[in-house]
Amino acid sequence: MRKWKLLALAAIAGATAIATAVGVAAPKQHKSVTLVWWHNQTVGPGVKLWPQVAAEFHKLHPDITIKPVPLQNEQFSTRIPIALQSSSPPDVFQNWGGGQLVDQVKAGKVADLTKYVSSWIKSIGGSAAGWQVNGKQYAVPYNVGVVGFWYNKELFAKAGIKSAPTSWPQLLADVKKLKAAGITPISIGGRDRWPDAFYWDYLAVKLCSKSVIQQAAVTYDFKDPCWIKAGTYTQQLIDAKPFQDGFLASPAQQGTTSSAGLIANGKVAMELQGHWDPGTMQGLTPDQKVPGFLGWFPFPNVPGSKALPGSLLGGGDGYACSWKAPQPACAQFISYLDSPTVQNRIGSTGLGLPVRKGTENSVKDPNLRTVLKFRSSSPFVQLYLDIAFSQSIGQALDAAIADQFAGKATPQQVVQKITAAAKKK
Amino acid sequence: MTSYDGVTAAGRARARPAALRLSRKGVEIGLFLAPAVALYTLFLIVPVVEAVRYSFYAWNGLGKLTDFVGLGNYREAFGSGDFRQAMEHNGILVGLSLVLQLPLALGVALLLNRPLRGRSLLRLIFFAPYVLSEAITAVIFLQILQPDGVLDSFLRSIGLGGLVQLWLADLGLVFYTLFVVITWKYIGFAIILFLAGLQGVPAELHEAAAMDGASSWATLRYVTLPLLGPTIRIWAFLAIIGSIQLFDIVWIMTLGGPAGASSTMASYMIDQGTQRYRIGYATAVAVILFGICFVVSILYQFLVLRRDYRVGTSRMAG
């Protein structure tokens, strides 16, 4: 008797479950959907702008509700793989493109957006390339910048340097001049490894041809001599001892003794950093303002270069839709972020450098305008190599370069280490 | 069996209620144990078994486990200079903790055990760092130890500017700098533990020793220390395991760098897993770490702690 009762109960429970499932599924046909949006705007102008954009979008598309979930930037690297592996991934999530996106595509975790964005993607120009895999658009950037030298004009003048260096030998000569004037030439956040890699990456971008670099991100073949050359030039800089005391342990962004803090407070003459650096510095000065002495110049050219003149190293932020996200709602939302109305505000609030053509003038800061000018006129913007490469290889590269900065690896060994890492997968 | 037969035959009438009681008792035990066993299995046994499974694959955390590499990950770990360096660091840490922290903590505990003005305040001061979280400790010391930071300024202000070092950037020094920070953080725990142990040393033994004309050194050596033995052994066990698993302070202060100069097995594991997405390989490292902790724990229990379990003899054996 008891067993029967139990069975009956189970049957009722099962029927209810099915009914509930159907009940949930039914409204989906009315296309009323909610998109969970994982973004990294936990500080700065995005804190206000992103929720605003989400609300606007809902007004334009009443059947689509956006639920923004701000997450601290560093959490993405650990939380995204786990979330994508689960059965309830976020619909829209922060994506840096490159090799990480390739890995996500290979595992079938992100949606192909090509057909949804094809009508307008040309209006963001070459910026879209870093978020493509095999010619298909799997994610879309909304903010792309390039790496360059942020420098203290006053300290440069004090050391008798009239204009920013345009060639590698000039940079090395200026380092000498600054040292002679008792000024620490360059700050670098060696603890975090990726700032070290900016030098090596940039020299590779300047020394290797475009095809060699792009091939390397697919085949992981580093036989071309330009890779070792990038290391030898890096070594020239290391040997010139231009960095602050204890640079191997300095963080890049935390505190006034970080590499950004040192330049923000007039303690060093320059720092090779991304376009976000003024924003970081702002938080590290006593008056919470971007210092007035700040200027920007692009990475100097290198003799014997095989690269296209004006090639740059950069990267940015984009969004991808997970495999489970309702389409076309998700693609529509991502497209909205690249619409002129949002792009103009990304520029005017200082959230980032807009990618859409025609919105450049929204950027007010003169230095960022220079950055934007160089980005727009560049024939080739290479994604940061640690992002462009598959995660394991990119991080192995950063670690190997950091070893070189610590005097623990030669240019040859850096190439050996990354080749070995590529074999391991 | 045979011996029971007679009993059962004779007491058959009463056997049934007894069996019933027994099975009811079993059910009760089962009911009370079940939640704990279920939780323990779900959150400890299952993950460990799963980890062992993952460690046989090359896996980047996305997609299905398809790339079976057998013991390849383990071979790579033991063949890796970086991992061996990390293991070495853990080994040194165990040694330094026992050799330096033990006498230091013991000395302070003995001092604080004496009737002393402001004793509670002193105890509080020594114990305070232990209450701070690892993350806060690491961030504070990261600031203090920066070049021209608080420590450097302090040294210069008292005329010891010559001692200033690149505390965190010097490849030969950074690990020992971290050891000092760790000692600052955890010594309070050892002191509190030893103080508690000292409370258990009966005053009459000290009196007896004094009557017999034992010097204070002899009293310490032959009365206090032996009676403190169980406490010291427990502390040493915690210190060894803590040293093997050390992670938070290292990760926040140096990320194991520069160039791996301050890495530990745990920092190496996290670097490989969450930075490089080599989840399969990192899991193999985790299994190795687990294995080491497991073996050390078992050996320690068997060789060292066992005598403390033999109630009654422990005091004599000391």
Strand content of chain A: 5-15%
What pair of chains forms the biggest interface?
A-B, 42 and 35 residues
Gyration radius of chain A (Cα, Å) is: 24 Å
Biggest sheet character of chain B: 2 strands, antiparallel
> What is the helix content of chain B?
over 70%
Q: Topology as H/E string of chain B?
A: HHEEHHHHHHHHHHHH
User: Total domains of chain B, how many?
Assistant: 2
Task: Report the strand count of chain A.
Answer: 12
Protein topology:
The complex is a heterodimer of chains A (425) and B (318).
Chain A: H1 2-28, E1 33-39, H2 46-60, E2 64-70, H3 76-85, E3 92-95, H4 98-106, H5 114-117, E4 132-133, E5 136-137, E6 139-146, E7 148-152, H6 153-158, H7 168-180, E8 184-186, H8 194-207, H9 210-219, H10 225-239, H11 259-264, E9 268-273, H12 277-282, E10 294-297, E11 312-321, H13 329-337, H14 340-349, H15 366-377, E12 381-383, H16 385-388, H17 391-405, H18 411-424
Parallel strand pairs in A: 1-2, 1-3, 8-9, 11-12
Antiparallel strand pairs in A: 3-11, 4-5, 6-11, 7-9, 7-10
Chain B: H1 2-10, H2 12-54, E1 57-58, E2 67-68, H3 72-79, H4 81-113, H5 119-131, H6 134-144, H7 150-157, H8 174-199, H9 203-211, H10 216-245, H11 248-254, H12 265-275, H13 279-309, H14 313-317
Antiparallel strand pairs in B: 1-2
What can you see in these coordinates?
The complex is a heterodimer of chains A (425) and B (318). Chain A contains 18 helices and 12 strands. With 425 residues, chain A is of the alpha/beta class. Chain A has 2 domains: 33-146 and 315-382, D-Maltodextrin-Binding Protein, domain 2, CATH 3.40.190; 148-313 and 385-424, Periplasmic binding protein-like II (D-Maltodextrin-Binding Protein, domain 2, 3-Layer(aba) Sandwich). In chain A, the strands form 3 sheets. In chain A, strands 1, 2, 3, 6, 11 and 12 form a 6-stranded mixed sheet that branches. Chain A has a 4-stranded mixed sheet with strand order 8-9-7-10. Chain A has a two-stranded antiparallel ribbon with strand order 4-5. In chain A, helix 17 packs antiparallel against helix 18. The longest helix of chain A is centred in the first third of the chain and has 27 residues, at 2-28. Chain A starts with a helix and ends with a helix. Chain B folds into 2 domains: 2-54; 72-317, MetI-like fold. Chain B has 318 residues and is mainly alpha-helical. In chain B, strand 1 (57-58) and strand 2 form a beta hairpin. The radius of gyration of chain B is 27 Å and the shape is flat. A two-stranded antiparallel sheet of chain B has the order 1-2. The A-B interface holds A 77-78, 81-82, 84-85, 103-104, 106-109, 190-193, 244-251, 254-255, 257, 390-392, 395-396, 399, 402-403, 405-409, 424-425 and B 58, 60-63, 67, 76, 142-143, 146-149, 166-171, 174, 254-255, 257-261, 271, 274-279, 281.
